[in-house]
């Protein structure tokens, strides 16, 4: 039996670990879980939330952490994510996932994602492109009001 893990399989595991640590950051593990997630990224890490209609700028690690950690900790209770599908090729991994949660003020939250990861030769995440449901995002965060 061959126990060697392929480059693609290791990158897929790393991407899933990263997402799980981010999810765990919304619960009792908080900053320690975010520290584990961001230990998996390179110094030149960059994330982009798409489509552009959600109006999120590209962010490097320091800015992303400054935005993400207090937002997740302050907004969500019991955040969960389910990985539906993964695809890996060379230094890229694509993940399709769903999430569910309740906000601390009792509102339901659920999102569908397509998240693309790029890795360097050391197996560190260098770039994330997170595609979200722009209409749900705009409604949830109060960017648009419906009549």
Structural class assignment: alpha+beta
How are the strands of the largest sheet arranged?
2-1-6-5-4-3
Radius of gyration: 16 Å
**What CATH architecture would you give?**
Roll
CATH class label: Alpha Beta
Topology-level CATH name: Nuclear Transport Factor 2, Chain: A
The general outline is globular
Note the total helix count. Answer: 4
SSE sequence, one letter per element: HHEEHEEEEH
Topology:
Blueprint: H1 7-24, H2 30-38, E1 41-50, E2 59-60, H3 61-75, E3 76-89, E4 92-103, E5 108-119, E6 125-131, H4 134-140
Parallel strand pairs: 1-6
Antiparallel strand pairs: 1-2, 3-4, 4-5, 5-6
Helix pairs in contact: 1-2, 2-3
Describe the structure.
- The protein is an alpha+beta fold and 147 residues long.
- The chain has a single domain, classed as Nuclear Transport Factor 2, Chain: A (Roll).
- It is built from four helices and six strands, in the order ααββαββββα.
- It has a six-stranded mixed beta sheet.
- Helix 1 runs antiparallel to helix 2 and helix 2 runs antiparallel to helix 3.
- It is globular and about 50 Å long.
- The termini are far apart.
- The mean pLDDT is 88.
Key terms:
Nuclear Transport Factor 2, Chain: A; 33% helix; 39% strand
Kindly summarize this structure in a few lines.
The protein has four helices and six strands, in the order ααββαββββα. By secondary structure, the chain is of the alpha+beta class.
